[in-house]
Amino acid sequence: MSQVTQDPAASGSTGAYPATDRTVPTRSRERASWDRELVHSILDESYMCHLGFVRDGAPVVLPTLYGRVGERLYVHGSTGSRPLRGAGADEGLPVCLTVTLVDGLVLARSAFHHSVNYRSVVVHGTAHQVTDPDERALALDAIVEHVVPGRADDSRRANARELAATAVIRLDLEEVSAKARTGGPGDEPEDVALPYWSGVLPVRHSYGDPVPADDLDPAIAVPGYLGKR
Amino acid sequence: MSQVTQDPAASGSTGAYPATDRTVPTRSRERASWDRELVHSILDESYMCHLGFVRDGAPVVLPTLYGRVGERLYVHGSTGSRPLRGAGADEGLPVCLTVTLVDGLVLARSAFHHSVNYRSVVVHGTAHQVTDPDERALALDAIVEHVVPGRADDSRRANARELAATAVIRLDLEEVSAKARTGGPGDEPEDVALPYWSGVLPVRHSYGDPVPADDLDPAIAVPGYLGKR
């Protein structure tokens, strides 16, 4: 049998992102990774990112939802918002998109070795406005599905007026790194005998019971995709 | 009895932050607030911020812990880290520090009106390295206490070698705004009869049972300040 050998880089879904000056950290380098699967898993577990851009020479960081389709991230917003307008220029908008999951608080005997167990992804690149109607529709579905899987088909999709008021920007996953810390505290050997509790306080993210809208028809049950979360 | 009338702005702890070009949003202006108490309550409930700065003309956003002492925020890190080094220059480092708490996912009948209940604070300003030893000690305690109240006195404080390896930067709360969304979905009247569930999925942040370090003396009990969280 013949076999086609895939180039991992060309496949876009295996292997690692290239390390660049911007994606090799100056500190805690042992926590850094460029592994695509790890990057995708962190991006897919969260739905809230912090998007940074430069306005009048100064940094601006805003929280926003995002979706992922393969090697592309999508962010949406009002056509009037400043970063989305900025991404509409031909040259696009240089951005840094960061996603952080906190898994635990690490309490060492020494204040110095206190830390956080976390997983984060930092994406550097240039965001561009998406103008193709099919890609815009795909992106908007991806954002809804990213936050609540199963919801896109169980809601009314945007109409022409709403689409006209919505800007979508795209950021390709090219210059990307993950960073993660796991495990217990890293105390100095001479501190282990100190009389302080030491360990990890796990951080939990969960959902409460769905709260129906005041005007919801009581005959409409909570959908299964909410119960499973 | 005589009474001293305080100037709210001068007291630094009451009233509102001044609205500036950078702290008046272009969209969802009704969600914005400059109220000090609201800003402080959001900053005190979280402990993880996203710090944005500009490097070689491009934005960088990194997650980091912070502490608050009155109208000052403190961030610490390795003396080798790039933003902390940048803040050591005489002119300081222009930053944007953003804190976001997610309270719920808002599911409207229309995809367009899907939203998130959240509270966020955005601080614009210039970060400066703290060199005064007393202020550095105060800041490091504040960061530990911010993450786990009660922990600073129940751990070994930094020694001279650790202090020499730690940079602390300060960001004054001067140009600050909060933004918050609460409540149920805001569907269009013509969408209310659509057959889709609508409401809010509350997001919960909690802690699991503390996990002791492998080398912890079993005689050391879990401290009360962890049990109360």
UniProtKB/TrEMBL annotation, chains A, B:
Transmembrane segments: none annotated. It comes from the Bacteria. This is Pyridoxamine 5'-phosphate oxidase family protein. InterPro entries: Pyridox_Oxase-rel, Split_barrel_FMN-bd. Residues 1-14 have a biased composition (Polar residues). Gene3D superfamilies: Electron Transport, Fmn-binding Protein, Chain A. Pfam families: Pyridox_ox_2. Residues 1-31 are annotated as: Disordered.
